[in-house]
Amino acid sequence: METAQCRLSSNAQRRPSAKRDGRTKKATDVYKIQLLLGLGVLWNRLAFDAPAPVPRFQVSRPEPVRRSRASLALKRLIDVVLALFALLALAPVFIFVALAIVLCDGGSVVYRHRRIGQGGRTFDCYKFRSMAQDADARLQRLLATDRQARAEWEACRKLRVDPRVHAIGGFLRRSSLDELPQLVNILRGDMSLVGPRPIVAEEIVRFGPYFADYAAVRPGLTGLWQISGRSGTTYEERVALDHRYATHGSTAVDLQILLKTPLVVLRAQGSC
User: The pTM is what?
Assistant: First the structure.
């Protein structure tokens, strides 16, 4: 997030201040705008000192900051150490969730889905299975009969009321427990603790020219998008956040995201 201050030109809209001698003093309004830099200029939450409309302005984008080899090596070391620790510490949780899935819906415990990783390479992304075994058929039936659900799916590839989810799948998603197996992906080197959300091949076109930045880093178990609203954001905002992290990420940013993630998970912010 960056904050830019824009001063209106003489022909832009002004608001009147106190009247002096029957004449209105012309005032210059300063608008504070929170910007998401990515696909042009995106507005996430606009905070104005005066009413809209928004004036035209120019924003100077900071140059991308690429990590040094030492920084990347430190990032990988943190990934391996913390992922190993988490796997050991959360082993009872893994066992409990696996048993719950088997008793609830039967079938496989872990779901593997092809995702796009660093360099554009595909990999199997692991998750605890939160969907019914006939999930794909359920989705196609819904999209074929429900126009509103189809529009929601096309907008963000998620459904707030998802008919594919089995009895405990909703809890696994809200608590983010379904993503714990991705710790294995981190140890394998497919993913990082922090990075852009892993996407499927069909989403590449939605990233447009910013896919190159996405593919320059490993996707993450958590990231800037995950702590910034998740499903409560638009897809364009998600692309902007992923682009922002990929071009300006650092060890300090990673640590801030890791510290914020547990609170976001506990509050189930933007999860569905």
Answer: 0.71
Do both 38 and 76 map to the same domain? Answer: no
Domain span including residue 116: 72-130+165-267
Locate 251 and state its tokens: 């060890």
Note the pLDDT tens digit of each residue in 65-115.
678 889 999 999 999 999 999 999 999 999 999 999 999 888 889 999 999
Give the whole-angstrom CA distance, residue 214 versus residue 195: 9
Q: Amino acid letter at 147?
A: R
77, 85 Cβ separation under 8 angstroms: no
- The answer on 219 and 169 residing in a single domain is yes
Residues 123 and 9 in one domain: no
Same domain for 77 and 41:
no
Residues 120 and 18 occupy one common structural domain: no
pLDDT in tens, 47-61: 323 333 333 333 334
Q: Contact 135/163 with Cβ under 8 angstroms? A: no
